[in-house]
Design goal:
It is a single chain. This protein has 155 residues and is α+β, with helices and mostly antiparallel strands. It has five helices and six strands. It has two domains: 33 residues, no CATH class; 89 residues, no CATH class. A three-stranded antiparallel beta sheet has the order 1-2-3, with no helix packed on it. A three-stranded mixed beta sheet has the order 5-4-6. The longest helix is centred in the C-terminal third of the chain and has 21 residues. The N and C termini lie far apart (59 Å). The mean pLDDT is 84. The structure holds zinc ion (ZN). Zinc ion binds next to loops.
Length: 155
């Protein structure tokens, strides 16, 4: 790593620690040339491929904003919204994914909502698919009812 001050490539790590539950590593470095110190961060980069093909860095806050918009007229608790966003982020990191489509994220949100709250699930599904893609909505909804029936049989 080159020194950002003098451009020398003679730099050393003087301290290295895990932050954000071990998902980010922060290193303090010193330039052997000019003796100045600087910090670098090592972290996962997950790219989200959007419907129009553009890619952007994964940002958990966008999941939170999306869910909040979907539930603004209802009383879905915001701690549950944060929980879902955290779980999705952790899942992606654990699976080691570096690229994921926005529709895959949408499906994961739906899966978690399904576990937590059936009404919230249907509401989000209708906002998420925006009824422009009624066939996909039907498909997802059909899968959901199928799985629910299976569960009921087991009981
Ligand atoms: Zn330097």
């Amino acid at each position: 790593m080159r020194c950002p001050f003098c451009g020398s490539d003679n730099t050393s790590v003087i301290d290295s620690r895990e932050i954000e539950n071990g998902y980010v590593i922060r290193r303090r470095r010193i330039c052997e040339q000019c003796k100045r110190r600087f910090t670098t961060y090592e972290k996962f980069e997950i790219f989200v491929i959007k419907r129009d093909g553009r890619e952007e860095l994964f940002d958990k806050r966008k999941i939170i904003i999306g869910l909040k918009n979907a539930f603004k007229k209802s009383t879905f608790p915001s701690d549950k919204i944060n929980q879902i966003a955290d779980r999705i982020e952790n899942d992606l990191k654990t699976e080691g994914l570096t690229r994921v489509s926005s529709s895959e994220i949408g499906k994961r949100i739906l899966n978690y909502l399904k576990e937590i709250d059936e009404v919230a699930y249907v509401r989000f599904a209708s906002v998420y698919f925006d009824f422009r893609n009624i066939e996909e909505f039907k498909k997802v909804f059909h899968e959901f009812t199928k799985k629910t029936r299976k569960k009921e049989k087991k009981v």
